[in-house]
Amino acid sequence: MCRSTAGIDRRSGYLVRMRVGLGQVVELPTPLGPLRLMVTAELARSESERGISVSLTVTELPARNARILNADERAVEGGCAAVWRIEAAVGCEAVKVYADLPTAGSGAPENGERLQTLSFDREGYQLVLGGFDDDALGQLVEAGQLPDHWRGALVPGRWDTDFGARAYGVSGMCWKLPGMVPGDAFDIHCAAAWGPNARLDAWFAVDTDPAAIYRTA
Fold first, then answer.
1. Which residues of 197-215 are buried (b: 16+ CB within 10 A; e: fewer)?
2. Which pLDDT value is given to residue 196?
3. How many domains in the chain?
4. Per-residue pLDDT tens over the stretch 3-32
5. pTM exceeds 0.85 for this model
6. Whether 193 contacts 101, CB under 8 Å
7. Domain region containing 127
């Protein structure tokens, strides 16, 4: 599935904008090992992968979340956020967005308040990875921020459809999204935060959205 891997150096300040191909892995450094990001799409045999355009923006955590990092009583040391802009010139059956920490061990899943997270703990040092949950995705469809023809596939308050935020092995998350038609475009994100004994604070720190990440960039 992975054709190539692009690494992003922490010294860049995480402010990176790049085009990525379907199946291409981008790695972000974290204290618990690389955070691997990837997008795939199920295309008809006759369609070219070039018909699905993916742009990736990577930043530090947005300013509102950074205040959590800077408060004296907080335990979060750092974090990063990524947002994908996915645009279709051809149709596809489904889109999957992956975020994975393959060397961090097993993560503990949690969800609530429009947020799906995976928490990792290594000898008291913790990292939380998060993004929209199924309820939030359904709300975004209703609000017109995701393709309107996804109604029924992503529904506010429902967790029993074939689409939404899912586990990816024991160390990652996958947002499985419905098919696209030519002209569709949308944004989807993930964020990570970390620090010693930081699980609760990091959970709040990854509560962000694509608009806030773009403002940071």
1. ebbebbbbbbbbbbebbbe
2. 86
3. 1
4. 455 556 555 556 788 999 999 999 999 999
5. yes
6. no
7. 5-216
